Amino acid sequence: MNTSLQSLIAAAGLMLAAGAYALTPDQEARIEDLLSRMTQEEKIGQLNQISGDGYSPRMSEAATKGTAGSVLNEVDPTVISRLQHDAVEKSRLGIPLVFARDVIHGFRTIFPIPLGQGATWNPALVEEGSRIAAKEATSTGVRWTFSPMVDIARDARWGRIAEGYGEDPVLTGAMGEAAVRGYQGNDLSSPDALAACVKHFAGYGAAESGRDYNTTWIPDVLLHDVYLPPFKQAADAGAATFMCSFNEINGVPSSGNSYLLRDLLRDSWGWNGLVVSDWGSIREMIPHGFCEDMADAARKAANAGVDVDMESYAYLPNLAKLVEEGKVSQATIDDMVRNMLRLKMELGLFYNPYAPKSDASAFYTPEALEAAQRTVEESTILLKNNGILPLKGSQKIFVTGPMADAPHDQCGTWSFDGEKSHTVTPLAALREKYGDDAVIYMPGLAYSRDLSTDGFAAAVKAAGDADVILYFTGEEAVLSGEAHSRADISLPGAQTAYLEALKAAGKPIVTVVMAGRPLTLPTESRLSDALLCSFHPGTMGGAALARIIAGEVSPGGKLPVSLPRMVGQLPLYYSAKNTGRPANEITLIGDIPLEAGQTSTGCTSFFLDAGVAPLYPFGYGLSYTTFEYGAPELSASEMAADGSITVTCKVTNTGSVAASDVAQLYVRDLVGSLTRPVKELKHFEKFTLAPGESRNVTFTLTADELAFHNAKGERIIEPGKFHLWVDNSSLCEAAPVEFSIR
Ligand code: NOJ
User: Fold this and answer.
1) How does pLDDT run across 235-274, given as a tens digit for each residue?
2) What atom in ligand 1 is closest to the CA of residue 245?
3) In angstroms, what is the span from residue 579 Cα to ligand 1's centroid?
4) What would the DSSP string read from start to end of 603-625?
5) Mean pLDDT, the chain, as a whole number?
6) b vs e for 333-346, b when ≥16 Cβ sit within 10 Å of the residue's Cβ?
């Protein structure tokens, strides 16, 4: 087909990003004045970030001498205030410190893990939660969070899949942008604004086999079309800082990658914020085999564009000598320092270095708890329901499973500052809702990895006295997150065996999965009458789940990732290529006749034992009502390469309760100069409809959104035919509508 002839070719990144910093001329002048008065030692001190250990002599000395410019992991307001007083009042130039923390999904009030937030498909809710997290964290004096993580993850073995918004660049980009807006608010200098840090730049989620910190090989086309767009979106949203990643990408560690950090991020995207290394990642370029020693690592990181050294201690002892030797220029050092001073200036720390007097009233406010609960309601995904949910009337409930009353574990990874005494577990919430007498509780298993079957018999017997079994299952918090990859992503311990045992009670079973990743749940799906996935839901998880179970609200989540049947299907994602042998017909292992011939299974691209489809697809999630999607209507069947069309789709709530749904617009570029995915999400919108109510969902689809990168790294829009669907999952079962770019 006609490919590049009429192509509109735009070099990558022609559009300038909204800069992270926009200081006034006076503020810039103040920074220049400071720079002119700083010794080399003071400059390099600003580029050193250290982890706090209370108000220790080491910390006080760093603040007073200016051998650190920023501190991470200190959240005690008294310690923060004392260190800041040391920096402002006792250091030679009075430059304030900036305090940083991993506020990943809430500070005290813990929201669902980011993967769960991705399942809301509601950026406004992510923004609201991030604003609340910022208010709580900044009340202590912390002004910088290492969030959001916008790494695309398509391999659920990777423990850090918990920390991002899933497999898709459009969904991840929208959520990352919302988080940046929420953390930073309208004005970074406001005392309750938290500087965002977009991480991990770049490609960290593509670690081989999902083993954390591992090698990534990402072809340029995939890098530009899938992995980088959410970063670009967050940069455009004004994110103040970026963090480079641990991994090497195509042979070059990110911490020494001047293509990513200078050519792309700064020169091409026009972003002007601060880049921090990951913890020790400058030093780690030595074991990567990219640097000889710490001096070499400091040289490569500084020249590549890493402004701040987090805990490698490579910059402090080496940068001055590297400048003397001419291996790093003074101009480079000054630029790095400028970036740090600008961050502090943007945050208002030069004018207002101290947090307002901190007290606990900033934490767990009714608004925060309500928003956290709403986020769980909107992120819990109903995967299966044979009609048992919502529970009808008063019932005797058997509550069981290791996650039924696990206040620590339901908060998930990176919930350093949450307090389990504030967590509402499902058991507590169900007792409150249904009354103590209606709830029989027996955990069956003490924790998710528990292998002991000793409690099964008594539990099955007790379950016999109930009308329904509510089985809370999943992963302990520690089984996902950084450095917590798993090769087997089924339910750990004896949890599946326990479900099989519970069947003997002869009662309907509702299984609720609280985990840090998509797990393989084929048995759970088969044996359960209803299956809910809430990922790790955080502080208000139990309260929200009890409301869902009782039918006070319909579960509003949609999968932000494909749910595999078997680990061997990984990496798994909906926007795959068709191949020359698409699996239109498959023969599964049990259907192969004895001594069948070599070609008898069809010779297409699938697994004999897993087929080709996920257990549940990206974008999927049932509700307590049903929705009908009309055929999408297009404003025109053709658009110019710089044009757009409007897509309208009528959606009706055809069931009997009010509920939310997510209209998802997918396209397929039928023929390209490079093959295109079978489906790509381009837009989505979440809405709520009353029973019987209809509404038109309208999207504007631009030709620009159909661009992709060619092998030369050029962003191109090709003329040709496209298919389009609007539906409430990536399944898109209705016939597509065709349009074209001329
Ligand atoms: C290492 C992690 O990769 C990063 O995400 C985190 O922000 C830093 N440690 C600081 O804790």
Assistant:
1) 999 999 999 999 999 999 999 999 999 999 999 999 999 9
2) 3
3) 38
4) S-SSBTTTBSS-SB-TT--B-SS
5) 96
6) beebbbbbbbbbbb
Strand order in the sheet with 659-669: 638-639, 737-741, 720-727, 659-669, 680-689
Which of 158, 278, 485 for a ligand 1 pocket mutation test, highest count of atoms within 8 Å of Cβ? 278
Alpha helices in 441-595 (DSSP H): 456-463, 495-502, 522-527, 541-550
Asked about 278 being catalytic, the answer comes back as: yes
Percent of the chain surpassing pLDDT 70: 97
Structure tokens at 191: 């005392």
**How far is ligand 1, taken at its centre, from the CA of residue 135, in Å?**
21
Provide the Cα torsion 299, 304, 306, 309; round to 10°.
-20
- Partners of residue 469 on adjacent β-strands: 398, 509
What pLDDT does residue 19 have?
65
Atom of ligand 1 nearest to the CA of 197: 7
Cα 279 to ligand 1 centre (Å): 6
Dihedral angle at the C-alpha atoms of 71, 72, 75, 79, nearest 10 degrees? -30
Mean pLDDT over 672-701 rounds to: 98
Q: In this structure, are residues 276 and 340 in contact, taking their beta carbons and an 8 Å threshold? A: no
The values of phi and psi at residue 195, to 5°, are: -70, 135
Distance CA 25, CA 247 (A): 38
- Please tell me the residue having the least CA distance from ligand 1 atom 3: 278
Tell me how long the chain is: 742
SS3 592: coil
Question: What global pTM score does this model have?
Answer: 0.97
Catalytic: which of 278, 296, 661, 727? 278
**Gap between the Cα atoms of 522 and 555, Å rounded:** 21
Task: Find the residues whose C-beta lies inside 6 A of ligand 1.
Answer: 72, 102, 146, 199, 278-279, 482
Closest CA to 501 of 558, 461, 472, 468: 461
128 burial via Cβ count (<10 Å: 0-12, 13-18, 19+): buried
User: CA-to-CA distance for 117 and 515, rounded, in angstroms?
Assistant: 13
Identify each DSSP E strand in 231-270 by its residue range.
241-244, 248-249, 252-253
Q: Which of 50, 70, 146, 247, when mutated, tests ligand 1's pocket best, judged by the most ligand atoms within 8 Å of its CB?
A: 146
**Per residue in 537-587, pLDDT tens?**
999 999 999 999 999 999 999 999 999 999 999 999 999 999 999 998 899
Q: How far apart are the first and last CA of the chain?
A: 12
Q: Which region, left, alpha or beta, applies to residue 671 given φ > 0 means left and ψ of -120 to 50 means alpha?
A: beta
Q: Tell me which residue has its CA closest to atom 7 in ligand 1.
A: 146
